[in-house]
Amino acid sequence: MANGNEHQTENFLFRLITEELEAGKFGRDMCTRFPPEPNGYLHIGSAYAIHTNYTIAHRFNGTFHLRFDDTNPLKENIEYVNAIIEDIQWLGYDPGDHIYYGSDYSDEIYNAAVTLIRQGKAYICDLTPEEVSEFRGTLTEPGRNSPYRDRSIEENMELFAKMKQGDYPAFSKVVRAKIDMASPNINLRDPVIYRILHAEHYRTGNDWCIYPMYDFAHPIQDAIEGITYSLCSIEFKDHRPLYDWVLKELEVPEPPRQREFGRLSLTGVVTSKRFLRQLVEGDYVDGWDDPRLPTLRGLRRRGFTPESIRSFIEEIGSIRTQSTVDISLLDHCLRQDLKPKTISVMAVLQPLKVVITNYPDNELELLMVENNSENEALGKREVPFSKTIYIERDDFMEQPPKGFHRLSLDAEVRLKGAYFIRCEQVIKDAESGEITELHCTYDPITKSGSGFTGRKVKGTIHWVSAAHAVKADVHLYEKLLLEQDVPKEGSGDWTEAINPDSRVIVKDGLLEPFVEHAHSEQKFQFFRHGYFCVDKKLTTGKQLVFNRIVPLKDTWNKK
User: Which residue range or ranges hold the Glutamyl/glutaminyl-tRNA synthetase class Ib catalytic domain (predicted)?
Assistant: First the structure.
């Protein structure tokens, strides 16, 4: 289970809530909630909101609720519900038995609307959606009253009952709260609180054909569950007066309090569900779990750990306004998490054949190599060494520049965990002139771990034995978008925005045999290449696929 970070006790939300609780605002225990709509998958911004609600609830010895805002049957289904529950549990913010559904409160929400109509605080409106928008006015001009605003209570009650019975087509009538069409807050200009939708709901079936709007259902659901604090991102601040109005008019005792925190954005990352859906449905990416997406499913498939995501959010702390955080901080937190607990293996992604001419032809040597240079507890493993090996192509240069410390003609280099080798001959393709093979010699006395203290070499390179190498496809990921800006509104064309090198697939990379039986989502450090994860979606019994999570180099907070 995730725990709240103690240093956050000084952030503004903790201070605010502490003051209100000490003033005796509630006679019940602390309770917060996260209310996702099950019409898509959670993303890194969702994790920030979940963390905020979860940690505050537990900081004050309260409970955390997961409640699905499932009041729109046109977009929601059980697939998203199951995915959201799984993702939250994976993150470490498990709500336990406190999983609820807004649709389970349909009767209570309907009765609340009836109460407002009977009080003369709500009415049935026949304006079209376009007319409702037109009558609402602008930020600088007040709205106009609907011609149906002064219907009698009796007529409104009769019409609402007929709406519930299914007597009218979709969107032909709505229920609107009667507040103030001249309010400077547009959300209070007689907002729609119920609409007609003839669609089957994934939980309630066809029991209902009218559904409440979120701004109306939200405070009622909070009150039913005994929520003390509805902690929302900053874009809901202008909705707070409506939240309070609903609770006041319904005379809810000790009503929940809505408080806002800043919305999290990351450089080069789009978290809007609408834009993410365009990417998925337009086949610009490989589904909602594409490792380039900021969805929790994508981050998990790429190889991010829940510990690294929680650490990232704790590093940010609570923010008051819209804030953009450098994505490199997330990568930094991942490296810090993986560095002490992953096994470092050798993987050659662009192989160049090396024949060690003075090594015995049929000799097989099992060399002991440390699994993690910073964590002895991870032990050592055996790595096979033989006459023919592969090294990275860019680890050899025939005519190296000054400062090149890898292999070159007539020069020595150390093979990691093995011997010094010297390149004696370069073999090239007769037609293309491409280097196809190197002939080298090794010095037996330079074996790693033998206590050899003779001559020194500046470079160490990785390698794999040709006869024992395991083939794997390796996906190298970079940022998905060339810029953070998204396509123009309504265009949905991401062609020019997508980074063409956001995914580079290396076919038949060669890895040491230790990884042959790696399990799904297992993480490794590939020597000099970065941190990698077994792709659980593409890996099969016949094909091993790795995703690069992040390179080794950490750029966070560096100039």
Answer: 31-339
